[in-house]
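Internal tracking record. Fields below are filled automatically when a chain is submitted to the structure queue. Please do not edit lines marked as system-generated. If the sequence contains nonstandard residues, flag them in the REMARKS field before resubmitting.
Queue: standard
Priority: normal
Entity type: single polypeptide chain
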Amino acid sequence: MILDGIRVLDFTQYLAGPTITRLMVDMGADIIKVERAPGGDPARLLPAIKNGRSGYFVQQNLGKRSLCLDLDHGESDMVVRELVAACDVVVENFGPGVMEKRGWDYESLKGINPRLVMASVSAFGQTGPLAHKTAFDWIAQAFAGIMHMTGPADAPPHPVGVGMADISTGVHAFSAIGYALFHRERTGEGQYMDISMIDSLFHLHELNLQVNQITEGKFVPKRFGVHHELVCPCGVFRGPQGYIAILCAQSQWGGMCASLGRPDLEHDARYSDISLRAERQDELIPIIEQWMQTFDSDQAVLDVLEHNRVPSGPVLSPLDALEHEYFESRGTLRDVHDPILGDLKLPGFPLRFSSQTDYSAGIAPLLGEHNEAILGGVLGYDGARVQALIDGGLLASGNS
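SYSTEM-GENERATED OUTPUT FOLLOWS
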């Protein structure tokens, strides 16, 4: 696997940070998940829980190894520093200043391991006037302007219904770590990365800033509901059974007209370009939806659109994926057997590399399950020393 031999010391919890190492473990990295005693990652308490085991935790921590430490114990600093010397990467998503207080900030740790790559993930970044603020996903969506752009035009702002800020930030950090490791291969030097949820989400605004400036303020970014304000057809249309999404660029307008059986519209001056069509979308949307109602099924509509090369797709629920051949054939959906929760279907690894074909998931660890294996295998502690640390209260473990 691509990251075979890369060892990661993972101080993260919940979602944004664990997303980073969830991706890295699928590429072969050895992830040592440091969990704080006595309870470990708070995600272990998130719903739904069955037999004391959180499905949320399981999904985000497949294949990782758990080391559960009392971080306030006098010997925890020694263990962490020894692990840093044996690792390639450190990731953490504590609040700014927490690692510094413990002497585990990058400037301190690179003295132990000059080749260390370290990433800190936080809501507002490690610097700036709001670095001190705590936040979760929806707060980041709100502050970055994503929530302002989501929902019906005449309704309050809507959050996106998935952990968009956390996961997007995790993916950004995952890519940054890859480039930092590449830089290390070139120079032999490690690197520190400050990854902000706000920065990662604000990066998603593809036109909201520049169109306002180019139009000298005539376009004001705002919620526009199910149809795009500047492009038409671009939106969610009611089909004979459910909903169908269409995004028709200028080059596909002819195919759209052919699908509708209205070749006259292709050369109608009123609809000749995207902007004009957007201005008259109140006329075009009913034409498209009335056409859709002449079919018996959504798939029949999609077949015609596909035949004419019009970008379109059904609006699926997450559960629809369980029965759709695409998700199974691509490995976008994967089968996981958890010793407590049983058989689960979970999102798979999203990337495809020509040099790697195995993306099989491991098992999410029990709390402190790998205490002895990590301290013995990585640091060379013998059984008596590990037992002394257990007896002394440094190490903890659990059954879920």
